[in-house]
Amino acid sequence: MSPILQGIVTTVGGILAGLALASALLWRQQQALEVARYQASHDEITGLPNRRLFLTRLRAALADRAAVGVVLLDLDGFKTVNDTLGHDTGNLLLAHVGRLLSSLDAPVEIAARLSGDEFALLVRGDHEDVAAAARAAWQAIGAAPFPLDSGEVSVRGSVGYTHNPAYLSTNPRQLLAEADAAMYHAKRSGTGVHGHRPLAAPVGRSRDRHHH
User: Fold this and answer.
1) Residue 212 has pLDDT above 50, yes or no
2) Share above pLDDT 90 across residues of the chain, in percent, rounded to a whole number
3) Which of 43, 117, 129, 208 is catalytic?
4) Are 158 and 71 in contact (CB under 8 A)?
5) 126 carries an active-site annotation
6) Full-prediction pTM beyond 0.85?
7) Which of 19, 101, 162, 165 places its Cα 20 to 30 Å from the Cα of 137?
């Protein structure tokens, strides 16, 4: 091979190697970006969407003028588990609850961990759909004891929910406040599940039937 041809081959080989390296670096950057996006929108312990993603999805549902509901669930006695069995066990319990909630059937659109031992469901549908999702979440948590090497821990939760019909305008903060108030009513009263009661129905509209 002539020196000129050899030089051309060497140059082309170098270019191809450079392109391959650049492609590999770009792929790694894209992967890192995807990981960063996932971590920014999901909870590290449970793998569920976090508060940020939950609010994004809730805003989108309200912007679509969809009938939606928010269900909040707070674990009863979680601090005792953390204090007596340790934070590692507490984290395993949170992951256990996350799996139970993420396995709930439609019309639950998204299950999220908002903070601490507080979880949320976004439900699309009528009032009965939201009430049914709230009861299903409460029953799923209570029916599945958390297994430990030394036995198991019974898990209980308090659930509050609210529903917003498609014809009403509201915002995520209002819905979360209503569901939160209902949840603490359930916790104080020991009923397990409680729904927010709207003050009044619009004229000409039939009011949703309300169930606890």
Assistant:
1) no
2) 58
3) 117
4) no
5) no
6) no
7) 165
Q: What is the DSSP letter of 113?
A: E
Q: Which residues contact 95 (CB under 8 A, 6 or more apart)?
A: 45, 46, 47
CB 114 within 8 A of CB 173: no
Contact 187, 158 (CB under 8 A): yes
pLDDT for the residue numbered 172? 96
Question: Which of 190, 188, 199 has the alpha carbon at shortest distance from 138?
Answer: 190
Distances (CA, A) of 17 to 28, 96, 160, 168, 192: 17, 48, 60, 60, 64
Fold of 51-195: Alpha-Beta Plaits (3.30.70)
Q: Locate the domains of the chain by residue range.
A: 1-41, 51-195
**Chain position carrying tokens 């917003």:** 164
DSSP-H helix ranges across the chain: 3-41, 51-63, 78-85, 87-102, 127-143, 172-189
Higher-pLDDT residue of 18 and 188 is: 188
Distance of CA 119 to the CA centre of its chain: 7
- Per residue in 54-65, pLDDT (tens digit) is 999 999 999 999
User: Do residues 158 and 74 make contact, with C-beta atoms less than 8 angstroms apart?
Assistant: yes
- What span, in angstroms and rounded, lies between the C-alpha atoms of 41 and 52? 6
* Model pLDDT for residues 9-38, shown as the tens digit of each residue: 577 667 777 777 777 777 677 666 665 676
Nearest to 80 by CA among 154, 159, 150, 190: 154
